[in-house]
Amino acid sequence: MIAQLTAWLMHPLGHMIAALAAIMAFVGVNGLVLVYMERKVAGFIQRRPGPYEVGPQGLLQPVADAGKLISKQLATPEGADRLMFWAAPILSMAPVVICFLPIPFSPLLTGMDVNLGLLLILAFSGLNSLALCLAGWGSNNKYSLLGAARAVAQAVAYEIPLLLSVLAVAFQTGSLNLSVIAQEQTRGLLSWNVFTHPLAFFIFFVASVAETNRSPFDLPEAESELTAGFHTEYSGMGFGLFFLAEYSYMVIVCAVATALFLGGWDGPVLPGIWWFLAKVFGLIFVMMWFRWTFPRVRFDQLLNICWKWLIPLGLLNLVVTALMIKLVR
Amino acid sequence: MGHDVNEKLTGDFYTKHFAPALSEDGDTLILNIGPQHPATHGVLRVVVELDGEYIRKSEPVLGYIHRMHEQMGEVKTYPQYLPNMGRVDYLHALAWNWAYVGAVEKLMGITVPPRAEYIRVITCELNRISSHLLWWGAYLLDLGGFTPILYGFADRERILDILQIVTGSRLTYCYFRFGGVVTDVTDEFIALTRQFCRDFTQRLPMYRDLVTGNMILRGRCEDIGVLSPEMARRYGATGPVLRGSGVAYDVRRFEPYSVYDRLAFDIPTGQAGDAMDRYEVRMAEMAQSVRIIEQALEALPAGDVVSPDLPERVIPPKGEIYFAVEGARGKIGVYLLSDGTAKPYRLKLRSPSFSNLSLFAELAQGTLLADAISIMGSLDLVIPEIDR
Questions:
Q1: Residues A9, A11, A15, A17: what is their CA dihedral angle, to the nearest 10 degrees?
Q2: Residue B105 in contact with residue B307, Cβ under 8 Å?
């Protein structure tokens, strides 16, 4: 029985199905963990306890939140395009599962060891902006429409510096396989790419905060301007899926940042997986810290940061990296 | 379907009234900000015509929280009307208290005992700080910063606790009476106020470091909604909005009432008249209020808190009177016309928020939607005060 199961798992298809199931479980649990973490971090920054009534230390609060979201009625606004309106949250959530596949949680724990893993993640996470666009267009709501327009402009602009920063690392390693890139960095702390490519790491992190629509770049859902932006009309799990997708994309970009720049699973004593998760959640904490500290930038300022700073710096970084590689080799 | 969706979506009278003025290219969007919207902080509605995210034209629509305070003034006797004043501007309720009792006192020629005057100054200035703190938090909320409001509320909560000791309420105060105040301050009140002044003086630099210096905040406020002194005068703007434009007009200094002429304080002003200047003026005003409170506490004389020679019934003689005080949002005026009966013949309330809101439409023209929100926040509007 066990042998049969192992054999089945060794088969690429079986491995992938098992990985997808594991990823779904991870995404779901992770949503709960991050909701709790976000609320506790917000509480800590705002000098209040955060949730503590539901369950010990408020641990069951995310469960209660999820229960509320699931039990709510799904309302479709009048005049909305039903197909687009309901396709959007699903389309936002679905690519998440694929994006998790090539992430190397430890040397052995990878959903699928693809050569073009990095490209796969970047391509599929790009689908999210399409989902936001559909949601905004299909809602028949002016706030949603404005939010969608912002989401698309922002996603298009920030994908460029994201790619430029990633390319610099890919140049050096000569691979787009995340496992290979992480493996390269296991030769001590100084082999981490964050020390050889500090600028690329900075650009990547800023761009990924913008790509995940997190504050201070949360313009598509800027609630003081657009009430809730693209998801104004969504209730219950329609909103829940967008919410879950946002948190999952946070994990994905932080995991990619960890694999690309922070040495992946590299670390002493503990098994690699714990180091990987610790680095991911450390980066997520920084993103939450941003959210509860900074005011929101204006839209033209957001694009200015991208076009006037991040893209030229990214290009410069790329050229310098290429020159260095040429000179050293 | 039974109904035409488009017919339903064209909007009500105000939206239709707005429509003929639409630009000819027809490529614009009419958006109703409010009456329920997170940035209006109340039931204010602003109809805007958007070209992309740029505002071509905007128009505030009022009346969603009209409670007929002026009419109520005509049907209630003078003392019966007192509690209304705490509900006009619930954030600086004591200033409205003061404007009304001040007008009646002036008409009847009642002198207020010095102790009561000082108590009025102390409580009113404490209330001003609490109002500015709430504005500060709410403004940052408009700009997407969630945390400052909780810091502001921590300080505001202390003020509310202090004011609760003497006034008995935490928000809609009804503390001033004709000829004085209703209760004397306690030693506990004085001690807590002194302690608060000491602590708050140290909190203000912290706010400056944490929030005012922030690059993103400066980017959102500087050169946004530049209000020229000429335009401010044209709309009758007062308070921090006018002072932000560089006009050092303060009722406490230029039409001194009570004991303000005996207290030293500066009138902070801005230079450019942008949202940042209005922000800085309010932050500086909090420090000045602390200065006033500290002086008033030092000088607090002994004696009655309510005039001993008050008539049994408050019935002013025939005549008219205007009395103004400096509220957190600007000049609060009460115009009273008495026909010699127990009820006013006419009571007109001049609310600063109404004038300050009026200039929004001109100021917001041509700006981005996000800037318009920033401008609206920097005007520090209290919606019930606009509608009265």
A1: -100
A2: no
Amino acid identity of residue A191, one-letter, is S
Name the 3-class secondary structure at B11. Answer: coil
State the average pLDDT over residues B206-231. 88
| Cα atoms found within 13 Å of the Cα of residue A41, Cβ hemisphere only | 18
pLDDT confidence of residue A177:
85
- pLDDT at residue B345, as a whole number: 92
Q: Check if the beta carbon of residue B289 is closer than 8 Å to that of residue B260.
A: no
The neighbouring-strand residues paired with A56 are: none
Judge whether A232 and A80 are in contact, CB under 8 Å: no
In which band, very low, low, confident or very high, does the pLDDT at B2 lie, cut at 50, 70 and 90? very low
Can you tell me whether residue A38 is helix, strand or coil? helix
ipTM: 0.83
- Cα dihedral A31/A36/A38/A39 (nearest 10): 140
CA-CA distance, A62 to A58, in Å (whole number)?
A: 8
Which of A144, A154, A298, A302 to mutate to probe the B interface, most B CBs <10 Å? A298
Q: Output the CA angle B169-B173-B179, nearest 5 degrees.
A: 120
Confidence at residue B4, expressed as pLDDT on a 0 to 100 scale = 40
Rounded CA Rg of chain B: 22
List residues bridging with B32 in a β-sheet.
Answer: B47
pLDDT tens digits, one per residue of A86-98: 888 888 888 888 8
- Considering CB atoms only, which of B154, B368, B373 is closest to A224? B373
Average pLDDT, whole number, for chain B? 87
Other Cβ atoms closer than 10 A to B53 = 20
Q: How far is CA A26 from the centre of its chain?
A: 14
**Calpha distance B379→B153 (Å, rounded):** 20
Picking from B99, B153, B103, B159, the residue whose alpha carbon sits closest to that of residue B127 is: B159
Mean per-residue pLDDT, A167-192: 82
**Residue B178 structure tokens:** 């004709």
Q: What is the spatial distance between Cα B172 and Cα B218, in angstroms, rounded to a whole number?
A: 34
Mean per-residue pLDDT for B98-116? 90
Question: How many angstroms separate the CA atoms of B192 and A278, rounded?
Answer: 46
> Burial code of B58-88, b = ≥16 C-beta within 10 A, e = fewer?
bbbbeebeeeebbeebeebebeebbebbbbb
Give dist(CA B249, CA B262) in Å, integer: 18
Chain B residues in contact with A298 (beta carbon < 8 A): 219-220, 368, 370-371
Pairing state between β B176-177 and B180-181? antiparallel
Residue A95: cis peptide before it, omega within 30 degrees of 0 = no
Contact B288, B128 (CB under 8 A): no
CB atoms within 10 A of CB A83: 10
pLDDT in tens, B305-317: 888 888 888 888 8
- Please provide residue B11's backbone torsions phi and psi, each rounded to the nearest 5 degrees: 95, 180
Q: Considering only A52-56, A100-104, A110-114, which range has the smallest mean pLDDT?
A: A110-114
Coil vs helix vs strand at A197: coil
- Give the 3-state secondary structure of A98-118: HHHCCCECCCCCECCCCCCHH
* Residue range B69-350, CATH number: 1.10.645.10
Mutate to test the interface with A, among B216, B222, B375 (most CBs of A within 10 A): B216
- DSSP letters spanning B281-330: HHHHHHHHHHHHHHHHHHH---S-SB-TT--SS--PPSEEEEEEEE-SSS
* Residue with the two structure tokens 């309106």: A85
The answer to whether residue B179 scores a pLDDT higher than 60 is yes
Reference A97, options A286, A245, A215; nearest CA is A245
Contact B144/A295, CB-based, under 8 Å?
Answer: yes
Total CB pairs under 8 A between chain A and B: 80
Closest Cα of chain A to B316: distance in Å? 48
Neighbouring C-beta atoms of residue B317, cutoff 10 Å: 10
